[in-house]
Amino acid sequence: MAEEIEGTEENPIVEINATLEYRDGVVYIKKINTNEMPAKLLFKIIEAMTTNIREHYRWNFKIGKNKED
Asked: What range does the domain containing 60 cover?
């Protein structure tokens, strides 16, 4: 059951349009546009995406998968 936020009539929408590049084990932000959101939330989202991107590419290169897989 979702908890409602007091004082708001609408549910918040988080919108992120980002272009990220993975190069040499590092994730670079090439472009990012967001709607209004707390900086702490944006940081946590970028941190989670960075972790997942690194794990994905490290795992695929470790087992020798093709980039297209």
From this structure: 36-69
